[in-house]
Specification:
The protein is of the alpha+beta class and 210 residues long. The chain is built from 4 helices and 11 strands. The strands form 2 sheets. Strands 1-2-11-3-4-9-10 form a 7-stranded antiparallel sheet. A 4-stranded antiparallel sheet has the order 7-6-5-8, with no helix packed on it.
């Protein structure tokens, strides 16, 4: 009976912790630390029970194990809800990588790399939409130009097996600090840095993950 009450109390506490994560009442790191501490206490309880000759019923052990796994899954889902966002593509400028009206998943980012697909917040009305999805072609400090349909970054031709259409030629551009050169994969149907110029990285809000 004592063991059953102990299990019920711990299940209730874990459920409250999971709710705090889901509704952002407490940070994931803080709650995760509390969960780890509770796990350690449970382990110690089981060890002491075995040492003292009292045996936790097999059914109880299985139920506890199942609950722990469910709790971990809930924690992962909660973090996904907090960090991953759903968006929809508008237009064909990123075709064939992403088609018009396709649903995509995006996340916050800490750094940019060549080839990243990002969401750009259009604050200067350079594009038809307030938010556009484009690919990172060149980063701050780089030079970029296009000759005979081939794009060169820092003097080296880059491989672009993801594009359709021909890239229109443009003169060499140096990317200033805090800026980036973005292009759509559908080169003949994309308004991008070739026409509007380099863009501020500060207005890149998310990175497309899939």
């Amino acid at each position: 009976m004592k063991l059953k009450k102990w299990l019920y109390n711990h299940v209730t506490i874990f459920r409250k912790d999971a709710n705090r994560i889901l509704f952002n009442e407490e940070s994931e790191d803080k709650v995760t630390l509390k969960i780890k501490e509770k796990f350690q206490k449970e382990k110690q309880f089981i060890k002491e029970s075995e040492y003292n000759g009292s045996e936790m019923p097999i059914k109880m052990k299985k139920q506890l194990d199942i609950f722990i796994h469910v709790l971990l899954i809930l924690s992962i889902i909660a973090m996904a809800i907090h960090f991953v966002f759903v968006g929809k593509v508008s237009g064909i400028s990123m075709s064939p990588t992403f088609e018009d009206n396709q649903i995509v998943l995006t996340t916050a980012y800490t750094s940019l790399s060549y080839g990243d697909i990002v969401v750009y917040q259009d604050v200067n009305n350079d594009f038809k939409s307030s938010r556009v999805i484009k690919r990172v072609i060149a980063l701050e400090g780089d030079t970029i130009y296009c000759e005979d349909g081939v794009v060169y970054v820092n003097g080296k031709a880059i491989e672009e097996d993801y594009i359709v259409g021909t890239t229109s030629d443009f003169d060499e551009v140096t990317i200033e600090d805090g800026e980036v050169f973005l292009m759509g994969d559908n080169r003949e149907n994309s308004v991008d840095s070739r026409s509007v110029g380099t863009l501020k990285t500060a207005y890149i809000t998310k990175k497309v993950v899939m």
